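Chapter summary example: a protein plus pyridoxal-5'-phosphate.
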Amino acid sequence: MTNDSESLEISTLLAAAFGGAHGSVTPPIVQSSLFTFDSYQAFEDRMAGRSDTAIYTRVQNPTVAAFEALMATAEQGEAAVGFASGMAAISSTIIAFVKPGDRIACVEHAYPDSYRLFERLLRPFGVEISYHSIAALENDPDLLKGVKLAYLESPNSVVFEPMNLPKVAEHARRHGALTVIDNSWATPIFQNPLTLGIDIVVHSASKFISGHSDTVAGVVVSSNELINRIRDLSLSLLGGKLAPFEAFLLTRGLRTLDARMRQHQATANTFVDRLSNLPCVTRVHSPGANSVPGLRGRSGLMSFELDDSIDIPRLSDALSLFRLGVSWGGFESLILPARVALAQAGEENSMQRFGVSPSLMRISLGLENVDDLWADFESALSKSAA
Ligand SMILES: *Cc1c(COP(=O)(O)O)cnc(C)c1O
Protein backbone atom coordinates (compact mmCIF):
# COMPACT_ATOMS: atom_id res chain seq x y z
CA MET A 1 0.00 0.00 0.00
CA THR A 2 1.41 3.39 -0.92
CA ASN A 3 0.18 6.89 -0.30
CA ASP A 4 1.21 10.27 -1.51
CA SER A 5 1.94 11.44 2.03
CA GLU A 6 2.14 15.08 0.93
CA SER A 7 -1.63 15.11 0.47
CA LEU A 8 -2.63 13.55 3.81
CA GLU A 9 -3.69 15.36 6.99
CA ILE A 10 -1.54 15.02 10.13
CA SER A 11 -4.13 12.81 11.87
CA THR A 12 -4.07 10.35 8.96
CA LEU A 13 -0.29 10.31 8.81
CA LEU A 14 0.05 9.71 12.54
CA ALA A 15 -2.55 6.93 12.56
CA ALA A 16 -1.21 5.18 9.46
CA ALA A 17 2.47 5.38 10.23
CA PHE A 18 3.37 1.85 11.25
CA GLY A 19 3.75 -1.47 9.62
CA GLY A 20 5.95 -3.58 11.85
CA ALA A 21 7.07 -7.21 11.87
CA HIS A 22 4.29 -9.90 11.94
CA GLY A 23 1.86 -7.34 10.50
CA SER A 24 1.78 -5.41 13.79
CA VAL A 25 0.24 -1.92 13.67
CA THR A 26 2.38 -0.62 16.55
CA PRO A 27 6.17 -0.29 16.73
CA PRO A 28 8.04 -2.99 18.67
CA ILE A 29 9.61 -1.90 21.97
CA VAL A 30 13.27 -2.59 21.26
CA GLN A 31 14.49 -2.98 24.84
CA SER A 32 18.17 -3.44 24.05
CA SER A 33 21.05 -1.25 25.18
CA LEU A 34 23.35 -2.24 22.30
CA PHE A 35 23.16 -3.55 18.75
CA THR A 36 25.62 -6.03 17.25
CA PHE A 37 27.07 -6.36 13.75
CA ASP A 38 27.24 -9.37 11.42
CA SER A 39 30.82 -8.76 10.35
CA TYR A 40 33.96 -6.77 11.05
CA GLN A 41 33.31 -4.81 7.84
CA ALA A 42 29.71 -3.91 8.86
CA PHE A 43 30.96 -2.75 12.30
CA GLU A 44 33.75 -0.66 10.76
CA ASP A 45 31.35 0.84 8.16
CA ARG A 46 29.01 1.92 10.92
CA MET A 47 31.76 3.48 13.03
CA ALA A 48 33.10 5.33 9.99
CA GLY A 49 29.64 6.73 9.26
CA ARG A 50 29.10 4.71 6.06
CA SER A 51 25.89 3.20 7.47
CA ASP A 52 23.42 4.41 10.07
CA THR A 53 22.01 1.46 12.01
CA ALA A 54 21.74 1.69 15.80
CA ILE A 55 24.88 1.05 17.87
CA TYR A 56 23.91 2.02 21.40
CA THR A 57 20.60 3.20 22.88
CA ARG A 58 22.05 6.36 24.48
CA VAL A 59 22.14 7.87 20.98
CA GLN A 60 19.90 5.73 18.78
CA ASN A 61 17.14 3.15 19.25
CA PRO A 62 14.54 1.89 16.76
CA THR A 63 11.48 2.57 18.99
CA VAL A 64 12.75 6.07 19.78
CA ALA A 65 13.45 6.57 16.06
CA ALA A 66 9.83 5.65 15.23
CA PHE A 67 8.61 8.40 17.59
CA GLU A 68 11.17 10.88 16.25
CA ALA A 69 10.09 10.24 12.66
CA LEU A 70 6.44 10.88 13.57
CA MET A 71 7.32 14.12 15.35
CA ALA A 72 9.36 15.34 12.39
CA THR A 73 6.36 14.66 10.15
CA ALA A 74 3.89 16.31 12.52
CA GLU A 75 6.01 19.49 12.90
CA GLN A 76 7.02 19.55 9.22
CA GLY A 77 10.71 19.42 10.14
CA GLU A 78 13.47 17.35 8.58
CA ALA A 79 14.43 15.51 11.76
CA ALA A 80 13.68 15.13 15.47
CA VAL A 81 15.46 13.91 18.58
CA GLY A 82 13.76 12.54 21.69
CA PHE A 83 14.80 13.27 25.29
CA ALA A 84 14.04 11.97 28.78
CA SER A 85 12.02 15.10 29.65
CA GLY A 86 10.99 18.45 28.26
CA MET A 87 13.72 20.08 30.39
CA ALA A 88 16.33 17.67 28.94
CA ALA A 89 15.16 18.70 25.46
CA ILE A 90 15.32 22.42 26.32
CA SER A 91 18.66 22.38 28.14
CA SER A 92 20.29 20.08 25.57
CA THR A 93 19.15 22.33 22.74
CA ILE A 94 20.44 25.51 24.33
CA ILE A 95 23.78 24.03 25.41
CA ALA A 96 24.43 22.83 21.85
CA PHE A 97 24.43 26.44 20.58
CA VAL A 98 25.32 28.82 23.42
CA LYS A 99 28.72 29.42 25.05
CA PRO A 100 29.99 31.79 27.77
CA GLY A 101 29.72 35.42 26.67
CA ASP A 102 26.74 34.76 24.38
CA ARG A 103 23.37 36.36 25.10
CA ILE A 104 19.99 34.62 25.21
CA ALA A 105 16.89 36.81 24.74
CA CYS A 106 13.98 35.12 26.49
CA VAL A 107 10.28 35.93 26.35
CA GLU A 108 8.73 37.11 29.65
CA HIS A 109 6.61 34.52 31.47
CA ALA A 110 8.52 31.56 30.05
CA TYR A 111 7.98 28.21 31.75
CA PRO A 112 9.33 28.61 35.32
CA ASP A 113 11.93 25.82 35.06
CA SER A 114 13.25 27.27 31.77
CA TYR A 115 13.70 30.55 33.68
CA ARG A 116 15.56 28.65 36.44
CA LEU A 117 17.75 26.93 33.84
CA PHE A 118 18.79 30.37 32.58
CA GLU A 119 19.21 32.00 35.97
CA ARG A 120 20.69 29.20 38.08
CA LEU A 121 22.69 27.16 35.59
CA LEU A 122 23.54 29.20 32.49
CA ARG A 123 24.12 32.64 34.07
CA PRO A 124 26.75 31.24 36.49
CA PHE A 125 28.50 29.75 33.41
CA GLY A 126 28.83 33.24 31.94
CA VAL A 127 25.84 33.25 29.58
CA GLU A 128 23.95 36.56 29.51
CA ILE A 129 20.16 36.50 29.63
CA SER A 130 17.68 39.29 28.95
CA TYR A 131 13.88 39.11 29.19
CA HIS A 132 11.47 40.87 26.84
CA SER A 133 7.75 41.42 26.55
CA ILE A 134 5.98 40.00 23.53
CA ALA A 135 5.19 43.53 22.35
CA ALA A 136 8.92 44.42 22.41
CA LEU A 137 9.92 41.23 20.59
CA GLU A 138 7.33 41.94 17.89
CA ASN A 139 7.73 45.69 17.51
CA ASP A 140 11.42 46.44 18.02
CA PRO A 141 13.19 45.16 14.89
CA ASP A 142 16.62 45.66 16.51
CA LEU A 143 15.91 44.09 19.90
CA LEU A 144 17.70 40.88 18.87
CA LYS A 145 20.85 42.60 17.65
CA GLY A 146 23.87 40.79 19.13
CA VAL A 147 21.67 37.98 20.49
CA LYS A 148 22.84 34.40 19.94
CA LEU A 149 19.56 32.66 20.68
CA ALA A 150 15.97 33.89 21.11
CA TYR A 151 14.03 31.62 23.46
CA LEU A 152 10.30 31.90 22.73
CA GLU A 153 6.93 30.54 23.79
CA SER A 154 3.67 31.34 22.02
CA PRO A 155 1.55 31.58 23.95
CA ASN A 156 3.86 32.04 26.95
CA SER A 157 3.23 30.31 30.26
CA VAL A 158 0.73 31.24 32.99
CA VAL A 159 -0.67 34.34 31.23
CA PHE A 160 -0.92 32.74 27.76
CA GLU A 161 -0.15 35.75 25.57
CA PRO A 162 0.33 34.74 21.92
CA MET A 163 3.13 36.10 19.72
CA ASN A 164 3.33 37.00 16.05
CA LEU A 165 5.93 34.35 15.19
CA PRO A 166 6.56 35.24 11.51
CA LYS A 167 7.38 38.79 12.60
CA VAL A 168 9.74 37.81 15.43
CA ALA A 169 11.39 35.13 13.26
CA GLU A 170 12.07 37.76 10.60
CA HIS A 171 13.70 40.16 13.11
CA ALA A 172 15.83 37.26 14.42
CA ARG A 173 16.93 36.19 10.97
CA ARG A 174 18.06 39.72 10.14
CA HIS A 175 20.37 39.69 13.17
CA GLY A 176 21.52 36.07 12.82
CA ALA A 177 19.87 34.99 16.09
CA LEU A 178 18.79 31.36 16.31
CA THR A 179 15.11 31.01 17.28
CA VAL A 180 13.92 28.25 19.63
CA ILE A 181 10.26 27.89 20.61
CA ASP A 182 8.52 25.74 23.19
CA ASN A 183 5.42 24.51 21.31
CA SER A 184 4.01 22.28 24.08
CA TRP A 185 0.80 24.32 24.48
CA ALA A 186 -0.31 24.37 20.84
CA THR A 187 1.13 20.98 19.76
CA PRO A 188 1.79 20.33 16.08
CA ILE A 189 -1.99 20.06 15.61
CA PHE A 190 -2.58 23.78 16.26
CA GLN A 191 0.76 25.41 15.34
CA ASN A 192 3.82 24.50 13.24
CA PRO A 193 6.46 27.13 14.10
CA LEU A 194 9.02 25.76 11.60
CA THR A 195 6.65 26.76 8.79
CA LEU A 196 6.48 30.29 10.29
CA GLY A 197 10.25 30.85 10.13
CA ILE A 198 11.33 29.54 13.56
CA ASP A 199 14.53 27.44 13.56
CA ILE A 200 13.95 24.89 16.34
CA VAL A 201 10.82 23.53 18.07
CA VAL A 202 11.01 21.91 21.52
CA HIS A 203 8.21 20.09 23.33
CA SER A 204 7.50 18.76 26.73
CA ALA A 205 6.01 15.51 25.38
CA SER A 206 4.82 14.85 28.95
CA LYS A 207 1.79 17.05 28.22
CA PHE A 208 -0.58 16.75 25.23
CA ILE A 209 1.71 14.52 23.12
CA SER A 210 1.63 11.79 25.74
CA GLY A 211 -1.90 12.83 26.67
CA HIS A 212 -2.33 10.14 29.33
CA SER A 213 -0.35 11.54 32.29
CA ASP A 214 1.84 8.45 32.31
CA THR A 215 5.09 9.66 30.73
CA VAL A 216 7.74 12.34 31.23
CA ALA A 217 9.54 13.02 27.94
CA GLY A 218 10.73 15.71 25.53
CA VAL A 219 11.51 16.13 21.85
CA VAL A 220 13.21 18.64 19.54
CA VAL A 221 12.35 19.12 15.84
CA SER A 222 14.35 21.10 13.27
CA SER A 223 16.54 20.74 10.17
CA ASN A 224 18.89 17.77 9.73
CA GLU A 225 21.85 20.03 10.37
CA LEU A 226 20.66 21.48 13.68
CA ILE A 227 19.28 18.14 14.97
CA ASN A 228 22.58 16.42 14.14
CA ARG A 229 24.43 19.01 16.18
CA ILE A 230 22.10 18.48 19.18
CA ARG A 231 22.34 14.69 18.78
CA ASP A 232 26.15 14.63 18.46
CA LEU A 233 26.89 17.13 21.23
CA SER A 234 24.22 17.20 23.89
CA LEU A 235 22.28 13.96 23.49
CA SER A 236 25.45 11.98 23.24
CA LEU A 237 27.53 13.80 25.87
CA LEU A 238 24.92 14.85 28.44
CA GLY A 239 23.02 11.62 27.86
CA GLY A 240 19.42 12.65 28.56
CA LYS A 241 17.99 10.02 26.23
CA LEU A 242 14.39 8.96 25.75
CA ALA A 243 13.75 5.34 26.80
CA PRO A 244 12.20 2.85 24.32
CA PHE A 245 9.13 2.18 26.47
CA GLU A 246 8.43 5.90 26.88
CA ALA A 247 8.85 6.34 23.11
CA PHE A 248 6.29 3.57 22.57
CA LEU A 249 3.80 5.36 24.86
CA LEU A 250 4.38 8.59 22.94
CA THR A 251 3.69 6.97 19.56
CA ARG A 252 0.45 5.72 21.10
CA GLY A 253 -0.35 9.24 22.31
CA LEU A 254 0.33 10.74 18.90
CA ARG A 255 -2.26 8.53 17.23
CA THR A 256 -5.05 10.23 19.17
CA LEU A 257 -3.49 13.70 19.42
CA ASP A 258 -5.67 15.30 16.76
CA ALA A 259 -8.92 13.88 18.21
CA ARG A 260 -7.92 14.85 21.76
CA MET A 261 -6.94 18.40 20.78
CA ARG A 262 -10.31 18.91 19.12
CA GLN A 263 -12.07 17.77 22.27
CA HIS A 264 -9.86 19.97 24.50
CA GLN A 265 -10.60 22.89 22.18
CA ALA A 266 -14.39 22.42 22.25
CA THR A 267 -14.37 22.33 26.05
CA ALA A 268 -12.00 25.31 26.25
CA ASN A 269 -14.19 27.39 23.91
CA THR A 270 -17.19 26.73 26.17
CA PHE A 271 -15.22 27.60 29.30
CA VAL A 272 -13.91 30.84 27.80
CA ASP A 273 -17.48 31.91 26.91
CA ARG A 274 -18.94 31.02 30.28
CA LEU A 275 -16.03 32.31 32.40
CA SER A 276 -16.14 35.64 30.55
CA ASN A 277 -19.78 36.03 31.60
CA LEU A 278 -19.19 35.49 35.31
CA PRO A 279 -19.09 38.73 37.33
CA CYS A 280 -16.40 37.35 39.70
CA VAL A 281 -13.99 36.61 36.79
CA THR A 282 -12.04 39.73 35.91
CA ARG A 283 -9.83 38.32 33.12
CA VAL A 284 -9.59 35.18 31.01
CA HIS A 285 -6.24 34.29 29.45
CA SER A 286 -6.72 31.90 26.53
CA PRO A 287 -5.72 32.72 22.95
CA GLY A 288 -8.03 31.26 20.31
CA ALA A 289 -7.58 30.22 16.70
CA ASN A 290 -6.23 32.99 14.44
CA SER A 291 -5.45 35.37 17.31
CA VAL A 292 -1.93 35.47 15.77
CA PRO A 293 -0.73 34.27 12.34
CA GLY A 294 -0.36 30.48 12.19
CA LEU A 295 -2.26 29.62 15.41
CA ARG A 296 -5.03 27.23 14.34
CA GLY A 297 -6.69 26.31 17.62
CA ARG A 298 -7.19 26.82 21.36
CA SER A 299 -5.78 24.20 23.67
CA GLY A 300 -7.18 23.08 27.01
CA LEU A 301 -4.71 24.96 29.22
CA MET A 302 -5.80 28.47 30.25
CA SER A 303 -5.94 30.81 33.20
CA PHE A 304 -8.32 33.37 34.63
CA GLU A 305 -8.31 35.97 37.40
CA LEU A 306 -10.92 36.25 40.15
CA ASP A 307 -12.08 39.30 42.07
CA ASP A 308 -11.91 39.37 45.87
CA SER A 309 -15.44 38.01 46.32
CA ILE A 310 -13.96 34.50 45.90
CA ASP A 311 -11.78 32.68 48.42
CA ILE A 312 -9.28 30.75 46.30
CA PRO A 313 -8.33 28.02 48.82
CA ARG A 314 -12.06 27.41 49.46
CA LEU A 315 -12.77 27.21 45.71
CA SER A 316 -9.87 24.81 45.21
CA ASP A 317 -11.14 22.48 47.91
CA ALA A 318 -14.77 22.64 46.75
CA LEU A 319 -13.98 21.34 43.26
CA SER A 320 -14.29 17.60 42.80
CA LEU A 321 -13.69 16.91 39.08
CA PHE A 322 -10.78 19.36 38.95
CA ARG A 323 -7.88 18.06 40.98
CA LEU A 324 -5.06 20.12 42.47
CA GLY A 325 -1.72 19.45 40.82
CA VAL A 326 1.07 20.47 38.48
CA SER A 327 1.52 19.48 34.85
CA TRP A 328 -1.31 19.44 32.29
CA GLY A 329 -2.40 18.06 28.92
CA GLY A 330 -3.80 14.74 30.17
CA PHE A 331 -7.30 13.23 30.27
CA GLU A 332 -7.96 14.63 33.76
CA SER A 333 -8.84 18.22 34.62
CA LEU A 334 -6.48 20.05 36.97
CA ILE A 335 -6.18 23.39 38.72
CA LEU A 336 -3.05 25.23 39.82
CA PRO A 337 -3.72 28.41 41.85
CA ALA A 338 -0.98 30.98 41.16
CA ARG A 339 -0.58 31.74 44.85
CA VAL A 340 0.60 28.13 45.38
CA ALA A 341 3.23 28.55 42.65
CA LEU A 342 4.18 32.00 43.99
CA ALA A 343 4.78 30.46 47.40
CA GLN A 344 7.47 28.12 46.07
CA ALA A 345 10.03 27.92 48.84
CA GLY A 346 12.84 30.38 49.27
CA GLU A 347 13.47 31.77 45.80
CA GLU A 348 12.58 34.51 43.41
CA ASN A 349 10.84 32.78 40.51
CA SER A 350 9.66 34.02 37.16
CA MET A 351 6.06 34.39 38.38
CA GLN A 352 7.21 36.79 41.10
CA ARG A 353 9.65 38.57 38.81
CA PHE A 354 7.10 39.24 36.09
CA GLY A 355 4.20 40.05 38.39
CA VAL A 356 1.66 37.27 38.05
CA SER A 357 -1.52 38.14 39.96
CA PRO A 358 -2.11 36.06 43.13
CA SER A 359 -5.78 35.89 42.10
CA LEU A 360 -4.89 33.93 38.94
CA MET A 361 -5.91 30.31 38.59
CA ARG A 362 -4.55 28.02 35.89
CA ILE A 363 -6.81 25.20 34.69
CA SER A 364 -6.08 22.26 32.45
CA LEU A 365 -9.33 21.07 30.89
CA GLY A 366 -9.29 17.30 30.40
CA LEU A 367 -11.47 15.00 28.34
CA GLU A 368 -14.44 14.81 30.72
CA ASN A 369 -17.89 15.92 29.57
CA VAL A 370 -17.96 19.72 29.38
CA ASP A 371 -21.31 20.14 31.15
CA ASP A 372 -20.17 17.94 34.04
CA LEU A 373 -17.01 20.05 34.33
CA TRP A 374 -18.91 23.32 34.23
CA ALA A 375 -21.47 22.13 36.79
CA ASP A 376 -18.61 21.17 39.14
CA PHE A 377 -17.02 24.58 38.64
CA GLU A 378 -20.24 26.55 39.22
CA SER A 379 -21.15 24.53 42.26
CA ALA A 380 -17.68 25.05 43.77
CA LEU A 381 -17.87 28.81 43.07
CA SER A 382 -21.18 29.04 44.91
CA LYS A 383 -19.47 27.59 48.00
CA SER A 384 -16.43 29.87 47.83
CA ALA A 385 -17.55 33.32 48.92
CA ALA A 386 -14.67 35.15 50.61
C1 LIG B 1 6.12 20.88 31.61
C2 LIG B 1 6.72 21.90 30.71
C3 LIG B 1 8.07 21.86 30.37
C4 LIG B 1 9.03 20.87 30.99
O1 LIG B 1 8.76 19.58 30.56
P1 LIG B 1 9.08 18.27 31.43
O2 LIG B 1 8.67 17.18 30.49
O3 LIG B 1 8.28 18.35 32.68
O4 LIG B 1 10.55 18.28 31.69
C5 LIG B 1 8.54 22.77 29.47
N1 LIG B 1 7.74 23.71 28.93
C6 LIG B 1 6.44 23.81 29.26
C7 LIG B 1 5.61 24.88 28.64
C8 LIG B 1 5.89 22.91 30.16
O5 LIG B 1 4.61 23.03 30.52
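Key point: The first strand starts at residue 79 and ends at 83.
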